[in-house]
Design brief:
By secondary structure, the chain is an alpha/beta fold. It is built from 8 helices and 7 strands, in the order E-H-E-H-E-H-E-H-E-H-E-H-H-H-E. Helix 1 packs parallel to helix 2, helix 3 runs parallel beside helix 4 and helix 4 packs parallel to helix 5. The structure holds NADP nicotinamide-adenine-dinucleotide phosphate.
């Protein structure tokens, strides 16, 4: 299947590691011109070189803190100016902590939401007018399946994700007339650096050993394991592609079947 991504330009936030890195690699592998954004310039440069070597594509980088309004505006402007247009935004940078509800102060809630919730909203608001002017675009939000699976040890992330599913639908309504299609990819646990850190925090909050906690969680999954970043990236790539021309306002869960319920 030709995804029709060969002449497309994409900005992937949080593209230096984990899911974002896999998305950037998948898009570059399909011929898209990709810019990755994260805070650490060295990791960004290393990831860009690895993806270029693996795909033969060209990967640009921009170092910015997307928890700050200035960082979001600068990263968006950089993508538009280096590419001349922006066809695809993958909102993915997020790092909300798990923890003990009663011991979590306001500042931590606000910090988590500042990047994950406000960072996605601000970035969409920055790129939207460019996509309107150029006659369309794709926005894919990576929104954890914690949106629909509340957990007592991951309330900051769960609430931000639930809000982002609502935002995705509303933005899809707003974008439809301008041919801007907005979707969410909703992963359950994915084996990344962040997952390893979250497991340690959740195990600690539950008073358990991290390795035993991880084994227990994996055994709960119908497929007996959690996802690999590439399994999430392939869906993001499809939704960003010309082949997904009638999908908007939806959130697709990629969780190996663990979410209960019929309407996902
Ligand atoms: N892994 C999972 O199990 C899982 C499950 C569901 C949803 N998700 C969501 O998927 C997304 C990616 O998760 P991941 O597991 O791939 O994370 P990861 O491996 O920790 O990678 C996070 C990426 O975001 C960047 N980042 C972090 N804070 C940033 C900031 N303030 N400004 C700009 N970039 C920032 C990181 O680079 P720097 O640190 O250099 O900035 C890195 O590139 C997150 O939104 C997460 O909530 C993950």
């Amino acid at each position: 299947m030709d995804l029709g991504l060969g002449d497309r330009t994409a900005l992937v936030t949080g593209g230096s590691k984990g899911i974002g890195r896999a998305v950037a690699r998948a898009l570059a592998g399909e011929g898209a011109r990709v810019m990755i954004c994260a805070r650490d310039a060295e990791t960004l440069a290393r990831t860009a070189r690895e993806i270029e070597a693996g795909t033969g594509g060209r990967v640009e980088t921009v170092a910015a803190d997307l928890g700050e309004r200035e960082g979001v505006a600068r990263a968006a402007a950089e993508a538009v100016s280096r590419f001349g247009r922006l066809d695809i935004l993958v909102n993915n940078a997020g790092a909300i902590k798990a923890g003990d509800f009663l011991a979590t102060p306001d500042e931590e809630w606000l910090n988590g939401w500042r990047l994950k919730l406000l960072g996605y909203i601000r970035m969409a608001r920055e790129v939207f007018p460019h996509m309107q002017r150029q006659g369309g675009g794709r926005i894919v939000n990576v929104v954890g399946a914690a949106a629909r699976n509340p957990s007592a040890t991951y309330m900051m992330g769960g609430t931000a994700n639930a809000a982002l599913i609502n935002f995705t639908k509303a933005l899809a309504d707003l974008g439809a007339k301008s041919n801007i299609l907005v979707t969410a990819v909703s992963p359950g646990p994915v084996k990344t650096e962040r997952w390893d850190a979250l497991t340690r925090q959740q195990a600690q909050a539950a008073g358990k050993d991290a390795a035993a906690f991880e084994r227990e969680r994996a055994a709960d999954f119908p497929l007996g394991r959690i996802a690999l970043p590439e399994e999430v990236a392939d869906l993001v790539c499809f939704l960003a592609s010309a082949r997904a021309s009638f999908l908007t306002g939806i959130a697709i869960t990629v969780d190996g079947g663990i979410t209960r319920g019929v309407y996902l």
